[in-house]
Amino acid sequence: MKRSGKLPLAQSSSAPSNQADIDSFLSTLSKIPPRPKSKGRGRLLFAMDATASREPSWDQACKIQGEMFTQTDGLGGLEIQLAHFRGFGEFEATPWLTSSQELVRRMTGVFCLGGETQIGKVLAHALDENRKNHINALVFVGDCCEEDVDALCRLAGELGLGGVPAFLFHEGDDPVAGRAFKQLARLTGGAYCRFDQGSAKQLRDLLAAVAVFAAGGRKALADYCKRSGGAVGDISRQLRLQGPERQ
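and the corresponding structure tokens:
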């Protein structure tokens, strides 16, 4: 069984993500300062933990990811790069993709393999990609953290300085991973949200919201929230656009 490292343990909770968690995440997302837009389409780096503990939810995740493109078609589209780690030091990233079918095809070709987390490689890769062409957002989905959190925070701080907000989706209730992920989100200017295997619709809606933000900025996010039902639609009243919209 994987264990998270370096941060002290706190009391664990088995409660699934609730409406307050969703509201907090989307409220934070709506208040992120404008970021410089990449040339052409918005760019979102989507990274996943593909170690053995995530296997039960991997197929579910594959079905969700392709839908991120659908919500951004009217905003000039979105480029997504899929990255994952698994096994003994294995880390891979796809080219930048503009097709939901290609994204799903590549995801379904990956199987989970036991190993330790490699979140540091995800953050370092995001920094490298951002130097080549600005990334509008980084998404990470994982359930554990087995790395030196101080080292991860240093990389997260560099991402924050580079204008790349990270959105960390925490599967399960590992309290140490939760504390680490919250710190990484805060240092990048992003947001954190916890989910479980019973919150597939919530995760789908939240990922779509991040995709809309990456493609069209905060105004597009507010419009998306107004026309969406469920967890996303319920928080539209909380959105507060601050400052000029990014060009």
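(Above: one complete record from the training split.) Confidence is low (pLDDT under 50) at residues 1-17, 233-247.
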